[in-house]
Design brief:
Blueprint lengths: L1 E6 L10 H4 L4 H23 L4 E6 L17 E3 L19 E5 L20 E6 L2 E2 L2 H11 L4 E7 H10 L4 E10 L2 E4 L2 H15 L14 E7 L2 H7 L6 E4 L2 E6 L2 H17 L7
Parallel strand pairs: 1-2, 1-4, 2-3, 4-7, 7-8
Antiparallel strand pairs: 5-6, 5-10, 8-9, 10-12, 11-12
């Protein structure tokens, strides 16, 4: 049984504030340990449930946040940026039996701790085939295309509710309760680790490859907070303006959908000016 853990940081235990996840800050250094604790708990649970291989794919910012020296030695870690499928790199091997979204969060423009989609600001909403789309929903479409079901999702309570829409069969663990975008009622790592491990062990029972989904084409709409950002995104071939602050594109497969999304958000990020956005 091969498990892929896509490990993001905003939904990790104890994380509520931008500095908690911004590489190089004092708070980031502190929160890396709690992030690693969450991942180790999932690794432990999956092995207890019968996994034979667990690959942890770093999925936050520089993708160099987890403490390798503290990682459960039974797991392997894919660290670093510039990967073909970014947050779900590794699923395209075609041999992943189950996927876990660890430390995930809600999408841009919605309620949730550190809610966003790819960019911390500028993007105010994303829709996949007309449905509000978090990173979880976008990535789940990709994993389904390779026949790898999402079996576990952790994050705040709003993230768990979001997961019910794209992975209704997945186990969920709310490591914190949403209060505002920058505040949450948090439980200590010892408590969340135990719950994550139990959920991962139970989730292993659902880790079973399925027939690869063929649900394309996929239409994505991205709304931004300034008209010039939409104009910049529309320079990408195949991406069209769909309003003053919105762009739209259609991709034949989820593989192409997520890769185009990465290009669109990269262009948007580079069109933001320091003071005016």
């Amino acid at each position: 049984m091969r498990i892929l853990i896509s490990a993001d940081m905003e939904g990790a235990t104890g994380v509520t504030w931008p500095a908690d996840v911004e590489p190089g800050t004092e708070q980031w250094q502190r929160c890396r340990a709690m992030f690693t604790s969450d991942v180790n708990a999932a690794v432990s649970g999956f092995f207890a449930g019968g996994a034979t291989e667990v690959l942890v794919n770093e999925a936050h910012a520089t993708m160099r946040n987890l403490l390798l020296e503290r990682l459960d030695p039974r797991a392997a870690m894919l660290t670093g940026r510039h990967k073909e499928l970014s947050m779900v790199e590794g699923v395209q091997r075609g041999d992943v039996d189950g996927v876990a979204f660890l430390g995930y969060h809600t999408g841009a423009g919605t309620e949730g701790v550190l809610a966003h989609t790819y960019l911390p600001n500028s993007v105010t909403g994303v829709w996949l085939d007309g449905e509000p789309a978090s990173e979880g929903r976008l990535n789940a479409a990709v994993t389904a295309e390779y026949g790898s079901p999402v079996v576990l999702v952790t994050g705040d309570d709003r993230t768990c509710l979001d997961a019910a829409g794209y992975a209704p069969g997945a186990r969920t663990v709310a490591v914190k309760t949403y209060v505002s975008r920058y505040a949450a009622v948090c439980r200590p790592p010892a408590a969340t680790a135990a719950e994550i491990a139990d959920a991962a062990q139970a989730a292993a029972a659902g880790a079973r490859r399925t027939e690869p989904a063929r649900r394309g084409p996929f239409t994505v709409e991205v709304e931004v907070d300034a008209a010039h950002l939409a104009g910049a995104a529309a320079l990408v071939p195949g991406v069209d303006l769909a309003g003053e602050r919105r762009v739209r594109y259609t991709a034949p497969t989820a593989f192409e959908m997520i890769r185009c999304f990465k290009v669109v958000t990269t262009v948007i990020a580079n069109a933001v000016e320091e003071r005016y956005g």
